[in-house]
Amino acid sequence: MTMPSRMPEPYGQGGGANLADILERVLDKGIVIAGDIRINLLDIELLTIKLRLIVCSVDKAKEMGIDWWEDDPELSSRARSKELTRENTELRAHVAELEELEQGRAERRKPARRKVEQGKTEQGKTEQGKTERSKAEESA
Fold this sequence. Notes:
two-stranded antiparallel ribbon, rod-shaped, 2 strands, 16% strand
């Protein structure tokens, strides 16, 4: 007498699906899991957490218009490069603006320096004239 086997049949036989087939279907079609958690105390909402999980292939995500990882500098070297280029451009513009301000200040200082230098020259001439007069008075 033969005893019936209690071992299950492999998935390949009898129309069952293996893990690779299931994964391929999920990635091809996509799956969305959504849920909200709300914590209320005496009808006052204290906390709301919205959870959304999408499992699909990259191609399917792009088809749906989801491509946030391409612009995230933490995940994409291209996005990191764009971020550095943008930052570099901003810094160069800021440096150019500061240099223009400094050049304008230097130009405003030049006439003032000339006046001070002219004043010192005139003051030196006046003091020299006083010294010559006092020497002349002493000798007279």
